Amino acid sequence: MPLPQESPRRRATSEDRRREILDAALDVFADRGYAAARLEDVAARAGIAKGTIYLHFADKRTLFMELARGAAAPMFERIGALSASNAPIDQLLRTMVEQFREQVLGTRRKEVFRLVITEGARFPEIAEFYHREIISRMVPPLRALLTRAHERGELPSDAVARFPQLLIAPMVVCILWDGMFNAFDPIDARGLLDAHIELLTGRKDIRS
Amino acid sequence: MPLPQESPRRRATSEDRRREILDAALDVFADRGYAAARLEDVAARAGIAKGTIYLHFADKRTLFMELARGAAAPMFERIGALSASNAPIDQLLRTMVEQFREQVLGTRRKEVFRLVITEGARFPEIAEFYHREIISRMVPPLRALLTRAHERGELPSDAVARFPQLLIAPMVVCILWDGMFNAFDPIDARGLLDAHIELLTGRKDIRS
Amino acid sequence: MPLPQESPRRRATSEDRRREILDAALDVFADRGYAAARLEDVAARAGIAKGTIYLHFADKRTLFMELARGAAAPMFERIGALSASNAPIDQLLRTMVEQFREQVLGTRRKEVFRLVITEGARFPEIAEFYHREIISRMVPPLRALLTRAHERGELPSDAVARFPQLLIAPMVVCILWDGMFNAFDPIDARGLLDAHIELLTGRKDIRS
Amino acid sequence: MPLPQESPRRRATSEDRRREILDAALDVFADRGYAAARLEDVAARAGIAKGTIYLHFADKRTLFMELARGAAAPMFERIGALSASNAPIDQLLRTMVEQFREQVLGTRRKEVFRLVITEGARFPEIAEFYHREIISRMVPPLRALLTRAHERGELPSDAVARFPQLLIAPMVVCILWDGMFNAFDPIDARGLLDAHIELLTGRKDIRS
DNA sequence: GATGAATGAGTGTTCATTCAT
DNA sequence: AATGAATGAACACTCATTCAT
């Protein structure tokens, strides 16, 4: 819920400017990695002067961390939707995987996640943030969901329920593979993720 | 007919020196990432002068790439052993996972893999090298092995056979999780990897 | 968002605004020195926007110079009063010293003088201004005064008459000492300046 | 007494390099003041590269502080010599003043002192250092000396004994005047300092 | 081979100044 | 008049790389 804005125009512009900088920063950070990225390139790509960045972000590190945090918000909705649902588990998993392909792999957001994965070890705050805000909030409902599915006989094993990381692992691999090998051996993300669901549920999907 | 060898002594010494530098480099690169690592720190940790590094490696990039390549060699042996075996698949998988835990996760070699994963996108040569030397050599025998197992009924699904990445994904996640969250939420790698085998084989392990 | 103004006059006059800026500038320049002072801090302290400074002063240098010049005006009056007087020299000196303590050392004006002393060498215009407007106007009447006092036997030596800087030197030292050592060894300005008059006149003051 | 040097050549060279940098730094700091001085200019004047400065000094501030501290050492000798002497006070004072003119005013060391005076307020460490190492060590022997002289009747007043700053004040003024007004009104330091001694001792010097 | 002092291009960050609103 | 976002030149400091010893 946005606070009342004293000057809607100005505020909007400032918010836009922030967004432009974050967009440009994503390109540059994704391209070169955090340490090798140059703020001058970020500025150039955003079409602004170098100093302008500092009107919106305290320093390079802060810019990076706000970029990394930015990708977290959209995940909550998916989590909420998932844990609330009573649909059969394979349908849920398929929805989840489809959303991942469409909203992460198919967009620039995948770059943010790759950055989180590849730079996370050097940014304790980001690691903690993701653990606290994403992982520790995601695991309990996921586990509940998967446990229920197991108890209903929809999942042959409780392995994923005990280690929900197993559900996520192939997606992580998709992002990493895409970043490393895409040029000469692009991944068939759909095939891989469908195969993974098959492994989990023990059932082959008959796709329309 | 032996080729003329340069002095065995000198060669051995030089090789030792190389190894010391690579060891030190692993520490520093793992700690700070490629771009932020300082060769001065590498030298200090190796107990040598900065310039000495350049007697053994052309430049920072080369040093890093040779470090990255170094972890590849030991994998061939495992691959060979695996594909030659006729043992039941769950036993093979358990051996493989155990080796991973003992020889990668339990050693500093996990740092090399983490570096390959996190810096790979910025080092096309490394990406290509790993794809060419590891992945493209590993996939066919792995696939054959898993296909055979599926056909013998040891694997309920051919999903892993079609996407051997699914076999590797949890190990990747182990390495990444270890690097990011170990301080406050250490991973139970054995549990996770056993659960994964359970998923693949459909059978719970009865460990002695 | 401007608060409703407490004062009935809607806007400060330009002269008031100038004064506010100069006041704020004195604080900031005194605190950090000319080069390290930031106009943004001046603006913040004056409660105005950064750009507003430029409506009243051409640039940072000009602002500083007008600040430095500002402290000069009040000195003329003292000089005039001094040179016109026929009172005994020790009384005059005591008055002078007392005025210095009350109107310079005891106020923020001492900061202006410290700035003139410490930055003067870097601001030829200020050096020239002070030499032209203060020193070269002050020396002749001072010299006349002191010479007369010497001839009347009120001063045992003509040394100060020949070098009126000797009269000023302890005051300069007071200002500098205050700025450097005040925190841990505050100066007894009254004692020091009284002792100085004793040196000049050869007579100890019997203070009431 | 120099310690045994492990590598006389190297050590001597490094010491020389330090000295060259300090010399160049004195020029630049004296010319522009601390904040406005550019280390690139220091390097250029020393005939070295910018980075070389950092092999010898941690940063700009440290460079400045070591420069400021450097001028302190030579003063101890003078202090020791003075306080040990039993010569008549006016002779001591004349020696002191002469040394000041020759070894401070007549050399680049006066620039160091000007820097200490003008930047001291912004460098608490320097202020404390000078107070601790110079002033607090200088005052007691000076006071003892001047008190003895007063008791022997060589000084008509105990004013300087009580406030030894009065002895120093004219020298401070000489340094400042020299920096600000020298171009158009050079000071007659000898005349001024002699006049000051006359004030203190009540005796005119008959110079040869 | 080994050293480590020296280099200098490169980059994050600051801040006086401008100008559209 | 006043604002404050934007600019971009400037500068401290870093570090891969070289080379004389």
Structure description:
The structure is a homotetramer of 208-residue chains. With 208 residues, chain A is mainly alpha-helical. The first copy, chain A, folds into 2 domains: 1-57, Arc Repressor Mutant, subunit A (Orthogonal Bundle), CATH 1.10.10; 59-201, Tetracycline Repressor, domain 2 (Orthogonal Bundle). Helix content of chain A is 74%, strand content 0%. Chain A is built from 11 helices and no strands. Chain A has helices spanning 8-32, 39-46, 50-56, 60-70, 73-84, 89-105, 109-119, 124-151, 159-162, 165-181, 189-201. In chain A, helix 2 (39-46) crosses helix 3 (50-56) and helix 5 (73-84) packs parallel to helix 8. Chain A is elongated. At the C-D interface, helix 7, helix 8, helix 9, helix 10 and helix 11 of C face helix 7, helix 8, helix 9, helix 10 and helix 11 of D. The structure holds a DNA duplex (21 and 21 nucleotides).
